[in-house]
Amino acid sequence: MKSLTHADYLALRRFPALDGLRAIAAVLVVFFHYGGPDWLQGWAGVQMFFVLSGFLITTLMLREERRTGRISLEEFYLRRAFRILPVYFVVLFATIAGSLVMGTFVSNGTGPALQYFFTFTNEFAGPSPYGQSWSLGIEQKFYLVWPLVAIALGTVVLRRRAGAAALGMLLALVVVNFTVSHSNPGWPLHYFSILTGVLLAIALHSPRGFALLRPLTNPVAQVFISLGFVMVHVGVKPMAGFLDGTGGIPGHVLVVPVYALATAVLLTSMVTPGPVTAVLSTKPMQFVGERSYSLYLVQTIAATVLALVWPELSGLGQAVVVTALGLVLASVLYATVEIPMIDLGRRVITRRRAKVAVTGGVARQGAPRSADPSRLAATGRARS
């Protein structure tokens, strides 16, 4: 059983096992919030999402630049907007409506937190029924800033300066977490997980980087890496105040980087076909993974409905039923909001490309022979 080659990796159109990882991460988070056993370490599911986001977004950018010679910021932001915002705001408005009906709009924290929800600074909001959206605040700022940084560096192509910049940002955030006082201690650390995924994408896209990581893509190694990851997952336990005895520096400062790096190793092994990849790519895993974003957002609504109709349920039973009900709601959102809006975004991008192509063609037909060659080259790149 051979390891994946760099050419094979670059030829992959999608990574099927990632649906399974998303499914596991989402279910872990729901179980963590609603009665699942502590040994499952469900809090770590969000960190897995962060690593996956950094890896996938950067990989898409790298491959776009490799294919077209450029990165379209407009198309990047359009794709993100149509993918993330519709479901986010549908669930937010449903949460607002439910709070108003129940007369708890202010008391449950929804009203005071709206300024954060509408500006994607969710990680600084107080407790509320939409509190799980704190991670969207982290990710949205990454989506906004990282493409700009990448293009400012001459695109994210595998130049040392791009990798060095991402590493520098990562280390700076860790330093900030130790030295700066803020209302949400530990928030910069979550970018460690995202930037770990960024660095992994850069490494795998590079022939040299891939050569170093290639042994991890062997199907046999995949099994042992998966077992090792499970051991890390159940073994990392945040301990508040571990460093200073006062709780001022959360134990996550120690365990999040370890978990992020373990996830990166696992993710590397999952890009290749193998026994674990086969399990993670099954239809049930794909089903949950495709709905993981909506499931993550609707978990509080599902739990609220359950509390109204079955208030005595608790523990593992509560976790299972909330997850099942959340999947029902997520499936409705997936079919009525997510897919239609993603398709609409694709149509908008297609129309934009057609418009740019027509405009570019007219510009070339009307350009004088003495026109600036660099300007024509820029026009050609815009059409690709």
Structure overview:
- This protein has 384 residues and is mainly alpha-helical.
- It contains 16 helices and no strands.
- The protein has helices spanning 6-11, 17-33, 45-68, 73-102, 110-117, 134-152, 160-179, 190-205, 207-213, 219-235, 252-269, 275-280, 283-290, 292-309, 315-366, 373-383.
- Helix 2 (17-33) packs antiparallel against helix 3 (45-68).
- The longest helix has 52 residues, at 315-366.
Summarize it.
The chain has helices at about 5-10, 15-35, 45-70, 75-100, 110-115, 135-150, 160-180, 190-205, 205-215, 220-235, 250-270, 275-280, 285-290, 290-310, 315-365, 375-384. About 70% of the residues lie in helices and about 0% in strands. Residues about 155-160, about 175-180, about 240-250 and about 365-384 have low confidence and may be disordered.
Map the helices and strands.
Blueprint: H1 6-11, H2 17-33, H3 45-68, H4 73-102, H5 110-117, H6 134-152, H7 160-179, H8 190-205, H9 207-213, H10 219-235, H11 252-269, H12 275-280, H13 283-290, H14 292-309, H15 315-366, H16 373-383
List keywords for this structure.
single chain, 384 residues, mainly alpha, 16 helices, 72% helix, 0% strand, disordered C terminus
Average pLDDT metric? 85
Supply Rg.
Answer: 22 Å
Uncertain residue ranges: 156-160, 177-182, 240-250, 366-384
Mind describing the biggest β-sheet? none
SSE arrangement, N to C: HHHHHHHHHHHHHHHH
Number of strands: 0
> What gross morphology would you assign?
globular
